[in-house]
Write a structure and sequence with these properties.
CATH superfamily: Metallo-dependent phosphatases
Number of helices: 6
CATH architecture: 4-Layer Sandwich
Distance between the termini: 37 Å
Shape: globular
Bound molecules: fe (ii) ion
Helix content: 10-25%
CATH class: Alpha Beta
Number of strands: 16
Strand order of the largest sheet: 4-3-2-1-15-16
Order of helices and strands: EHEHEHEEEEEHEHHEEEEEEE
Largest sheet: 6 strands, mixed
Number of domains: 1
Radius of gyration: 17 Å
Structural class: alpha/beta
């Protein structure tokens, strides 16, 4: 396995501010909807709301399901939008993405699809937890090797790990059939590295904040529709799209906040039984 080269992030400061946006579920035709929602419009609205805060992100972190229809059209349109961001964007795939197609269209500076971001005090390790044609995830052997390789190579850097699938139960039985299959091994591995301070993920379309042996575990809302917490079966939540700010401090602390739009996406079919 050839390691992806590390890059010096543009953000070389003592405080790193990350905009975490996830699960856009963009269609190939931007006029198409999903569960009644025009996912292109809700993505644009969510991004606009985040940028209107004038918090100046050092980087944007996109944790998968960027596409609902993993096509050239979808990724090229997204590339155009991400290229116009005021910061670099780092992408990893979700179960609805096509990782190879995604990389081929998106991985052009200032957009990156790589496993490692090296900053002044921190490293961010981006993992691919997808299994082809499967909604659940797994940390495959090559990704586990990659994770440990970066942790060992930069032992003095605090580490934030990003992936699509949730490594702890969300509390919704239907959703938890689709979590990271070998999450215990993943968390145990991270537990061996005290500089590993957080894991950030998408997939669950809701806010989740918990801890595992001092490791912050942070799930974030989708930019389109949200899943209702603590449900046995699929259920949508009547709550607006959102995004997460993550601040990485020089002393290893993580501060974070989820913000949401003021209104639900137009057309949201809250009674939908699935997609
Ligand atoms: Fe999703």
């Amino acid at each position: 396995m050839t390691p992806t080269p590390a890059v010096e992030g543009d953000a070389a400061g003592d405080l790193i501010r990350i905009l975490h946006i996830t699960d856009f579920h963009l269609r190939s035709d931007p006029g198409e909807t999903l569960l009644g929602v025009n996912t292109q419009q809700s993505f644009e609205a969510t991004l606009a709301a985040a940028l209107a805060e004038n918090l100046t992100p050092d980087l944007a972190l996109l944790t998968g399901d960027l596409a609902q229809d993993a096509t050239r059209n979808t990724y090229e349109r997204l590339k155009g939008r991400l290229t116009a961001l005021p910061c670099p964007a780092y992408c990893l795939p979700g179960n609805h993405d096509d990782p190879v197609l995604m990389n081929s269209h998106l991985a052009h500076s200032p957009i990156f699809c790589q496993s490692h971001i090296r900053l002044k005090h921190w490293q961010i390790i981006c993992l691919d937890s997808t299994i082809p044609h499967s909604p659940y995830g797994r940390l495959a052997d090559d990704q586990r090797v990659l994770l440990e390789q970066w942790l060992k190579e930069y032992p003095d850097y605090f580490a934030l790990v990003a992936l699509h699938h949730h490594p702890v139960p969300s509390g919704s039985a239907w959703m938890d059939t689709m979590q990271l299959e070998n999450s215990e091994a993943f968390l145990e591995l991270l537990g061996n590295y005290p500089k590993a301070r957080g894991v950030v993920f998408g997939h669950i379309h809701q806010t989740l904040e918990t801890e595992y042996r001092g490791l912050r575990l942070l799930g974030s809302p989708s930019t389109c529709f949200q899943f209702k917490p603590h449900q046995a079966q699929f259920a949508l939540d009547a709550i607006p799209p959102g995004y997460r700010w993550i601040e990485l401090h020089a002393d290893g602390r993580i501060t974070t906040q989820v913000n949401r739009l003021d209104t639900l996406p137009a057309g949201l079919d809250v009674e939908s039984g699935g997609y």
